[in-house]
């Protein structure tokens, strides 16, 4: 075949493929195919745009992660920030509240005295029920109870003042529910014996038959 015939065949082939006569197309038989210069330029520009878009998304994700970490750390140290975060992320605040039946006890408690029992029925708020030694005024036992849940735990024998700490947006065992913390105490000491414990239904409020007074002092942080 002469050169003219070969060029003619190439031009006809390229015309059928819809390619420009000036372009070059070759195949190295390894699945790779080089096309016209305009194709390369467009593909390269698209790849560059994709690269920058990916880098931008990664940078944004990194900045959001850092900002989230700063907010979480700051919330643990700043009550005002923790309260405002809880308003925007109430589910996260609720999830951090300890499970019902979780207890905090005084290191001075003689465990051989734990022969009574305490049953709690949660209201529409998370709460902590505390037993305060009636004689010394020291903290003996605190029980966490989530909203609407019910739990029974062992309790030490003795005479105690019973206190309720409750609220909407849980912060931590140091600030409790922030400025929304309600701190109440049952009037009079309540006995706990081996044969006689107590059941508190926090849903009843004034209908519980208990005389309760609001305390102005803040609850002491739990260990």
Structure description:
The protein is α+β, with helices and mostly antiparallel strands and 223 residues long. The chain has helices at 3-16, 37-77, 79-88, 90-95; strands at residues 26-27, 33-34, 103-105, 114-121, 126-133, 139-145, 150-156, 158-167, 182-186, 190-192, 198-201, 212-214. The strands form three sheets. Strands 3, 5, 6, 8, 9, 10 and 12 form a seven-stranded antiparallel β-sheet that branches. It has a three-stranded mixed β-sheet with strand order 7-4-11, with no helix packed on it. Helix 2 (37-77) packs across helix 3. The longest helix has 41 residues, at 37-77. The radius of gyration is 36 Å and the shape is rod-shaped. Mean pLDDT is 79; it is low at 91-95.
Task: Provide keyphrases for this structure.
single chain; 223 residues; alpha+beta; 7-stranded antiparallel β-sheet; 3-stranded mixed β-sheet; 4 helices; 12 strands; 32% helix; 28% strand
Shape from CA axes? Answer: rod-shaped
Mean of residue pLDDT? Answer: 79
Helical content stands at: 25-40%
The percentage of residues in β strands lies in 25-35%
Structural class designation: alpha+beta
Number of helices: 4
Number of DSSP strand runs: 12
Report the end-to-end length measured between terminal Cα atoms. 95 Å
Gyration radius, rounded: 36 Å
- Summarize the main sheet: 7 strands, antiparallel
- Uncertain regions spanning at least 5 consecutive residues: 91-95
Q: Would you list the SSEs in sequence order as H and E?
A: HEEHHHEEEEEEEEEE
